[in-house]
Amino acid sequence: xxxxxxxxxxxxxxxxxxxxxxxxxxxxxxxxxxxxxxxxxxxxxxxxxxxxxxxxxxxxxxxxxxxxxxxxxxxxxxxxxxxxxxxxxxxxxxxxxxxxxxxxxxxxxxxxxxxxxxxxxxxxxxxxxxxxxxxxxxxxxxxxxxxxxxxxxxxxxxxxxxxxxxxxxxxxxxxxxxxxxxxxxxxxxxxxxxxxxxxxxxxxxxxxxxxxxxxxxxxxxxxxxxxxxxxxxxxxxxxxxxxxxxxxxxxxxxxxxxxxxxxxxxxxxxxxxxxxxxxxxxxxxxxxxxxxxxxxxxxxxxxxxxxxxxxxxxxxxxxxxxxxxxxxxxxxxxxxxxxxxxxxxxxxxxxxxxxxxxxxxxxxxxxxxxxxxxxxxxxxxxxxxxxxxxxxxxxxxxxxxxxxxxxxxxxxxxxxxxxxxxxxxxxxxxxxxxxxxxxxxxxxxxxxxxxxxxxxxxxxxxxxxxxxxxxxxxxxxxxxxxxxxxxxxxxxxxxxxxxxxxxxxxxxxxxxxxxxxxxxxxxxxxxxxxxxxxxxxxxxxxxxxxxxxxxxxxxxxxxxxxxxxxxxxxxxxxxxxxxxxxxxxxxxxxxxxxxxxxxxxxxxxxxxxxxxxxxxxxxxxxxxxxxxxxxxxxxxxxxxxxxxxxxxxxxxxxxxxxxxxxxxxxxxxxxxxxxxxxxxxxxxxxxxxxxxxxxxxxxxxxxxxxxxxxxxxxxxx
Length: 717
Ligand code: ADP
Ligand code: MG
Fold this sequence. Notes:
- The protein has helices at about 1-70, 75-155, 155-330, 390-405, 425, 435-450, 510-525, 530-535, 580-600, 615, 620, 640-655, 675, 680-690; strands at about 335-340, 360, 365-370, 375-380, 385, 410-415, 430, 435, 455-465, 470-475, 480-485, 485, 495, 505, 535-550, 555-565, 625-635, 700, 705-710.
- The protein is an alpha+beta fold.
- Strands 1, 5, 6, 9, 10, 11, 14, 15, 16 and 17 form a ten-stranded mixed β-sheet that branches. Strands 2-3-4 form a three-stranded antiparallel β-sheet, covered by helices on one side. A two-stranded antiparallel sheet has the order 7-8.
- A hairpin with a 7-residue loop joins strand 12 and strand 13 (about 495).
- The longest helix is centred in the middle third of the chain and has 178 residues, at about 155-330.
- The radius of gyration is 78 Å and the shape is rod-shaped.
- The N and C termini lie far apart (about 230 Å).
- Bound molecules: adenosine-5'-diphosphate and magnesium ion.
- Adenosine-5'-diphosphate binds near residues 345, 417, 421, 424 and 425.
- Adenosine-5'-diphosphate (ADP) binds near residues 417, 419, 420, 425 and 534.
């Protein structure tokens, strides 16, 4: 029995040991599983999740950058980048799927482990219950029965029993401890379940985040794709429209080409034709040049002949013109006598002596009437200028004469008249309204310019004064120096004045400078310039030398513009001394002028040029085919009537004189004009001590009403 009990005890002991060891194994398994595999897996999963999150964030960031740069650029580089990103995302997706799969596998494994543990626990609990049941069964009725038997049978057995009970208690305690351990393990298991649930929740959260990130990424990708597609569409549209334009252009060009083709064909044929021409051109050119040369030579020869013929004709025409001119001069008379009546001036004042005594014929500008003491005397001249005549009117009349000076004629223009009759006004004029002198030079400048194509013309001027029969150079540095008139040593019979300065003038400025110099020199040594000027002859001598550029013909013309001294008879005032000498010299020279003109008119063989410095100096310009114009100035005042009549008579007589042929240059020193000429000088009246009007004509009305000239005997003095 005892052995049986012992055997049971041993078996129970073994079972307990086995259970214990199993429990220990299971506890250690659970311990190791809870602290190693599961935690490790969990850590790996967490790390993996973190990494995935980071990658996802990086991808999102790059995607944002890509999105930011996409609108600015839609070219192929970006589409490549986009596709590259998409590939990366696909890889990541795969990785994510792999991780998810691993996670689910791990989860499954964890579930299996937990189930396995639960099963084992169940089995263990069942075994523990069985053990407890077996122990309870062994300890309660059977042990009491054995104890009663043993108390009876053996104290040693009692002792054994006590030992077995002790051991039983010990086992009981051990089972309690095991139970406590199991409770702790259950607690630990609960904890690990909780942790596992937390981990699962975390995994699910991560999965949700992953899903969301994936959704965002996909939508971003879609947006990128859309934008890309839109950009591609736009580019495509643009390219299509450009393509269309290019196509249209191409069609236009094609049409043009089609239309040009015939023209091109024509051009090609023309070109070929031209090429042939060009090939033949040098020969043709040589021929043409030869031919043209011949023609040119021929034309030059012809032109030369024509030119010579023309030159011949020109020379003949020039001669003819000169002949005609001479004839005209002869017909008109070489001396033209004009009269200018000055207007009444403020200085004349009013009074019975200052009445106007001159009247005119409105139908005849060649006559004027002088009314005096109830009689009216008519004077006939070439032309009469009334007081209102302007300087331009006077110049128009003398202009032709001045022009003929360029043609090589010598011309003299005299201003004759008593002092105050307007001689200087007519010759010099005022600065703002110049007279003949300045206008003549201006006119010559104009003519020179006009003829410059055919003629090389030079104009020079001299200014001289004859005072008391002394010739002075007004342009010299020393105007008081006397000048002499000499016969040219070349035997030509021409006169010249050594030392007489000639200044070349080319402009109005030059003239003004020369005139100013002359005026200044004239004023020297004399306090009253006007007085001096009325007692001397002022000469402006203009020389025009020309050379015809075609024929080489040379011409010399001289224009003498003379403002004569006053013609009044000083005898009236009974002057003496130097004043008388002045008057005598003036009268002498004016008489000599009259004598010369008279001698010329009457074709005398000897002309008394030498009787005065004036006539001697002007010898060349008074003889031959020279032209003379006498401007007789008269005052319209009653108080000047005698001088007016004297001047008009002088004028009327010289008007009828003709200049002779050039041969008549000889002169007679002893020639007396007073004896042979009717012209009576004022001086002769002074010398003879009588007051006579020179022989002249006065006018009376005939019964027929016509003008008639009456002899001096008819004039009632
Ligand atoms: P002459 O030189 O004969 O002595 P002037 O030429 O000095 O005379 O003239 C005398 C005055 O008469 C001057 O004051 C001048 O201005 C004036 N005079 C002469 N003729 C005219 C005229 N045609 N128109 C206006 N004033 C004149
Ligand atoms: Mg004067």
